[in-house]
Structures are given as structure tokens and as C-alpha cells.
Design goal:
mainly alpha
Length: about 90
């Protein structure tokens, strides 16, 4: 991907974050670097932290209930976000 195409794909992200593409590149080498960071954050929040929290519960049924509550709570938060126009 040439540099101009890369800037074009990162501009909407920078705009959405209320920053410039220069600031974007200060934090991330490229778009793939951003995606890798997002995936690592998601994995930590949605997997590592969830497993650690469930490990503190000894009863398997209580673990299942806690997992269901966690999933429902996260899904309901996402459902309340306002729709964004293009």
C-alpha cells in the first residue's frame, strides 16, 4: 500500500478521534499497528480479564451465570450507543 493510500485510510480514524493523522502516526506506525493494538486490548478485556474473574468463583454454575451476566452487560452497553450516520 502506498503512503497516500495509507494516509487516506487513517484519516477517518484520526478524525473520529479528534486528532490529526500526524498525531495518529506518533502513536501507531501504520493502520496495521493500530489494528494490532486494538486486538490486543480486546483480547485483554474480553478474554484475559474474564477468565481471571471467573477463576475466583469455585462453583461451575456460578461461573456460567457470571459469564452470562458479563456478556449481557457488555452487549446491553453496546446496544445503547447511538447509531452513527455516514
Amino acid at each position: 500500500m502506498d503512503a497516500h493510500a495509507l494516509v487516506a485510510t487513517c484519516q477517518p480514524v484520526a478524525r473520529r478521534l479528534g486528532t490529526t493523522t500526524g498525531s495518529f502516526y506518533w502513536h501507531f506506525a501504520d493502520r496495521q499497528d493500530l489494528l494490532s493494538a486494538l486486538l490486543a486490548l480486546w483480547e485483554d478485556q474480553e478474554t484475559t480479564q474474564a477468565v481471571a474473574a471467573l477463576a475466583t468463583i469455585s462453583d461451575p454454575m456460578a461461573q456460567l451465570v457470571a459469564l452470562g451476566r458479563r456478556a449481557y452487560t457488555r452487549a446491553s452497553r453496546g446496544a445503547r450507543r447511538p447509531a452513527r450516520g455516514r
